[in-house]
Design brief:
Number of helices: 3
Oligomer: single chain
Helix content: 10-25%
Radius of gyration: 18 Å
Number of strands: 8
Structural class: alpha+beta
Strand content: over 45%
């Protein structure tokens, strides 16, 4: 029985590793975006994880850096307010909300895409909430994201003074 559990665990691990290959990332995004003169237009549907799809797009298209905006209906939107004393986000999740605006940037950190996004959502009574986005899942309808690509690769780093991620700009020579 232990051998079976080990084999099953190994099989699940192998499946997880192979599912993150570039070909798998491209397949996950198939039909979700198109090239535009300034970058990409992405249309996500029910159940899609918005931030994860942006990371996958950055990997698949080798985007050096970008800015993005988006709108759409979310089944869940999780915001976080950063507590500098504790060095962590205090999260709050809102369900079945209209995303009135999402604005953010794509950069890189430690070889992986790094998404920084803020947004505003409203509920059925037009009460709003907003801030730093930690998670977004598309609800009914769709989510439209416009990605404007920048020519230089930008990196995020931890600013030693504030102990938080910041976007680094290329230094003039």
């Amino acid at each position: 029985m232990k051998a079976f559990v080990r084999l099953a665990t190994f099989g699940a691990l192998a499946l997880a590793i192979t599912s993150v290959t570039p070909a798998a990332v491209a397949q996950d995004l198939k039909g979700k975006y198109m090239k535009t003169p300034t970058g990409y237009l992405m249309v996500l549907r029910r159940g899609d994880n918005v931030l994860q799809n942006l990371e996958q797009l950055a990997q698949a298209e080798k985007i050096p850096s970008a800015s993005f905006t988006g709108i759409g209906f979310m089944s869940e939107a999780t915001f976080g307010f950063y507590d500098f004393a504790r060095k962590q986000f205090d999260p709050k999740t809102f369900r079945n909300v209209e995303m009135a605006n999402m604005t953010g940037s794509i950069a890189w950190k430690e070889g992986k895409p790094s998404i920084h996004a803020h947004g505003t959502v409203t509920d059925g009574t037009f009460n709003g909430a907003g801030g730093h986005l930690l998670g977004l899942t598309v609800g009914t309808g769709s989510c439209e994201v416009t990605v404007v690509v920048h020519p230089e690769r930008l990196e995020r780093f931890v600013d030693p003074e504030i102990q938080a991620n910041v976007l680094g700009l290329p230094q003039p020579q």
